[in-house]
Design a protein that fits this description.
It is built from seven helices and six strands; from the N terminus they run βααβααβαβαββα. The chain is α/β, with parallel strands linked by helices and 130 residues long. A hairpin with a 2-residue loop joins strand 5 (114-115) and strand 6.
Length: 130
């Protein structure tokens, strides 16, 4: 199983725990977390600017992620189906990695329900399904 854990879920996992953290643990037990430079850059930016996480802690989070994720450089076209251009990068990664799921809290992505063969679900739904 290949699962793209969206940036907002990664942030929740590392800042708040809860369902987002359980999603990350479950994906690691069942398959692969697919990731990209785009997601890691967005994660770094949000953790430092929005949540004021100290640089040393952000570095530890990135080091941890780099050990557990499968990095993919997207090679499919950037889709144009989302209001938010950042969401297009997530869909592009899902297509390039042949992800089974995108786990996200992003309402714009969740409304799609699927993109190609990839199901788009919330953390709670993912935990119920797997």
């Amino acid at each position: 199983m290949k699962v793209l854990v969206d940036t907002n879920v990664l942030i929740s996992a590392f800042v708040f725990g809860g369902n987002a953290e359980r999603v990350l643990e479950k994906v690691l037990a069942l398959g692969d977390v697919v990731c990209s430079v785009f997601i890691l850059d967005e994660l770094t930016r949000v953790l430092t600017k929005k949540f004021a996480v100290p640089a040393e802690k952000v570095t530890r989070i990135l080091d941890t992620l780099n050990q557990i994720v499968v990095m993919i450089e997207p090679n499919s076209p950037l889709p144009d189906v989302c209001r938010d251009p950042d969401d297009s990068n997530i869909l592009q990664l899902a297509a390039s990695s042949n992800a089974d799921f995108i786990v996200t809290g992003d309402k714009d992505l969740l409304t799609l329900g699927a993109f190609g063969r990839t199901q788009i679900v919330s953390p709670a739904t993912f935990l119920q399904m797997t």
